[in-house]
């Protein structure tokens, strides 16, 4: 098929159903105004059985996932033809020839890569966060075609036209209580060879401007990239808001619950007897993920140091934080739970307590359902006559919805073999692994076969296995961690994260000189992400992180704050 000269180019996707059978092809054209923007990236071909949502929003680990095939494009020059290799890897169906005949909504999507010349000497091509939180299907500047309904019979020519582009992100405006910081990090900029930024949403206490002599403790709420400060609303819930169904929790009206909880928090926040402190939510998306895991990493750079020694002191200086370790606390769930514990362990005197809910694997003997030190394969186990696949996700009844192999295969199709999917397993690998010879993370296991690399596992153990690090270094860490560690997890966590918590608890309870003097608790039959309240469902407690641990934090402050600290209002008068 030919389009007007100098306005379009043809991308031919060639495939033979069998050696002697008829061929099929997909023809993708790109609008003229976008051709100059194409150089390096990942080209995705997506098929979905439904019109809504679009295929790009329907790829998941679940059985209803859209189909995706992906291939890398490198050094494209305008006007050159490109051929999509339909032998490229796909998910959930691995091979194009196995896609059954039927009606599909089909879409083409291009994930743009940029070139980074890092300080470690490696030059890498990767997708760059555009302040959207490293979401490949929403990244500003990525181009795509509208979804098109196609009747597929194995022979049909599919024609797609990429003439859509994701718009820039609108950053939120400051309000009386919530301020927004975008901070250039010298440490990260030096590592990545370009300007790199950290951000934060800052919640200020009541009467902040009226009391310039007050200085406040800092609560650091770790988690995925927040577009604005969440769970805080200065107006009552919308009266005309219609009930929406929340598939995750299986209830109607969760949107109303969220608004009410956010407004209730505001009412507490401004009440005269509520303690005064600062809450921050950090933005630290990067080329790999929506979050850096808040530690130093060979592949991501010194995010731990940049957050602890650049961003946090800057915020404390701008907004009258006390600025000392005894007045900083960390908390969060899932990714944020791992971060809360990790920064406490790696920066033991810079923080005075962590509250880690449903943390990502904190002991790699239980890296979800894999023991990376003893298991030979991440995807399967068994004997000479029978092999079993490892499970990846379950519900509170133990019913399994996806396998660990499938979760990794989805990322392999989306991001290729260099950990560039922007998703969970790839970011763990990017954070924890050493740099490979090609400049990308060295795989913990073969993404296709699941075979585990024991040398990489040894690197993970010594640098990021939090249980092992505490056990190895308790002689020098113990005194600085005493009374600071709090971990909470449902015993039916969807991703089996409770298994690592059991192993960590076993060590913590064995500690002496000093005893760790914290707490580890489990929610009976609670799923991901239980955070300590056994009397309320997850869908409520997850909205209360900023108030849930205040009694325990008050206890730490009573024990450790200097005499000049006001224990009632939580302020230091200078």
Automatic annotation (TrEMBL):
Record's signal peptide: 1-25
Matching PANTHER family: ENTEROCHELIN ESTERASE-RELATED, IRON(III) ENTEROBACTIN ESTERASE
Record organism: Mariniradius saccharolyticus AK6
Gene3D superfamilies for this protein: alpha/beta hydrolase
Protein name: Esterase
Keywords of the record: Signal
Entry keyword annotation includes Lyase: no
Domain of life, per lineage: Bacteria
SUPFAM superfamilies per UniProt: alpha/beta-Hydrolases
């Amino acid at each position: 098929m030919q389009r007007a000269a100098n306005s379009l180019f043809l991308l031919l996707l060639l495939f033979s159903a069998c050696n002697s059978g008829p061929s099929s092809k997909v023809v993708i054209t790109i609008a003229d105004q976008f051709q100059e923007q194409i150089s390096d990236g990942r080209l995705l071909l997506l098929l979905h059985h439904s019109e809504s949502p679009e295929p790009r929003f329907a790829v998941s680990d679940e059985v209803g996932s859209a189909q995706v095939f992906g291939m890398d494009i490198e050094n494209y020059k305008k006007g050159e033809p490109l051929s999509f290799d339909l032998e490229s890897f796909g998910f959930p169906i691995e091979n194009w020839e196995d896609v059954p005949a039927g009606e599909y909504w089909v879409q083409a999507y291009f994930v743009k890569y940029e070139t980074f010349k890092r300080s470690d000497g490696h030059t890498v091509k990767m997708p760059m966060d555009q302040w959207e939180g490293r979401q490949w299907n929403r990244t500003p500047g990525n181009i795509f075609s509208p979804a098109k309904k196609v009747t597929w019979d194995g022979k049909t020519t599919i024609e797609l036209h990429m003439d859509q582009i994701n718009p820039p992100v609108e950053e939120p405006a400051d309000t009386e209580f919530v301020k927004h910081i975008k901070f250039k990090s010298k440490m990260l900029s030096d590592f990545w060879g370009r300007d790199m930024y950290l951000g934060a949403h800052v919640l200020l206490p009541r009467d902040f401007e009226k009391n310039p002599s007050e200085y406040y403790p800092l609560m650091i709420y770790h988690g995925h990239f927040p577009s604005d400060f969440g769970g805080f609303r200065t107006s009552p819930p919308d009266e005309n808001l219609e009930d929406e169904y929340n598939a995750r929790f299986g209830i109607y009206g969760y949107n109303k619950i969220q608004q009410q909880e956010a407004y209730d928090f505001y009412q507490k926040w401004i009440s005269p007897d509520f303690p005064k402190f600062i809450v921050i939510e950090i933005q630290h998306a990067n080329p790999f993920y929506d979050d850096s895991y808040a530690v130093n990493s060979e592949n991501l750079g010194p995010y731990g140091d940049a957050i602890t020694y650049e961003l946090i002191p800057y915020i404390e200086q701008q907004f009258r934080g006390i600025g000392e370790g005894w007045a900083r606390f960390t908390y969060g769930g899932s990714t944020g739970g791992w971060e809360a514990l990790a920064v406490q362990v790696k920066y033991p005197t810079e923080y005075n307590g962590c509250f880690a809910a449903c943390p990502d694997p904190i002991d790699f003997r239980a890296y979800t359902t894999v023991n990376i030190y003893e298991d030979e394969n991440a995807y399967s186990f068994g004997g000479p006559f029978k092999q079993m696949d490892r499970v990846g996700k379950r519900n509170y009844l133990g019913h399994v919805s996806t396998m660990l192999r499938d979760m990794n295969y989805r990322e392999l199709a989306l991001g290729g073999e260099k950990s560039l999917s922007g998703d969970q397993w790839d970011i763990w690998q990017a954070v924890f692994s050493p740099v490979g010879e090609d400049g990308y993370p060295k795989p913990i296991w073969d993404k296709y076969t699941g075979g585990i690399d024991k040398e990489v596992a040894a690197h993970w153990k010594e640098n990021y296995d939090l249980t092992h690090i505490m056990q190895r270094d308790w002689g020098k860490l113990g005194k600085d961690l005493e009374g600071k560690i709090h971990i909470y997890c449902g015993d039916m966590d969807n991703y089996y994260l409770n298994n690592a918590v059991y192993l960590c608890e076993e060590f913590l309870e064995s500690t002496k000189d000093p005893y760790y003097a914290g707490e580890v608790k489990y929610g009976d039959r609670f799923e991901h992400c239980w955070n300590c309240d056994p009397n309320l469902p997850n869908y409520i407690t997850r909205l209360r992180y900023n108030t849930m641990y205040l009694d325990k934090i008050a206890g730490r402050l009573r024990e450790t704050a200097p005499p000049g600290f006001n224990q009632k209002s939580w302020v230091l008068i200078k």
